[in-house]
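Try this one yourself first.
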């Protein structure tokens, strides 16, 4: 039985922590201050890390933030190379994480439903 390695998870967490510190300071377009890194996943071969982010403005703001993050990716990867003790820093791919916005929407719908059921609407 082959045991799954913890290394991809550890590398992903390390990159998550470092990007969370780098983005607010090193992003030339200033979008890093509005971004929250929600999760990271590294592929088993450690060639790619998927970085999931959220922004307060939701999907509309994410549509403008994502291209800026993609433009900043080479610089961020270079900075990670200098900060991390890894043979190779994985390719970084940013993805908008809509789960927080969806959770907020569901919470508002439930609250409205509770108000309607209690007659305080």
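Now uncover the answer:
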């Amino acid at each position: 039985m082959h045991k799954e390695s913890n290394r991809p998870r550890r590398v992903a967490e390390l990159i998550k922590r470092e990007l969370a510190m780098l983005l607010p300071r090193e992003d030339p377009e200033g979008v890093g201050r509005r971004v929250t890194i929600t999760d990271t996943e590294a592929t088993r071969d450690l060639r790619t890390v998927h970085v999931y982010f959220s922004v307060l403005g939701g999907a509309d703001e994410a549509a403008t933030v994502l291209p800026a993050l993609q433009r900043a990716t080479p610089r961020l990867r270079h900075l990670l190379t200098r900060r991390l003790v890894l043979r190779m820093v994985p390719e970084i791919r940013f993805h908008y994480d809509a789960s927080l916005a969806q959770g907020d929407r569901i919470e508002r719908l439930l609250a409205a439903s509770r108000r309607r059921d209690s007659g305080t609407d």
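Discussion: DSSP finds three helices and three strands in the chain. The mean pLDDT is 87.
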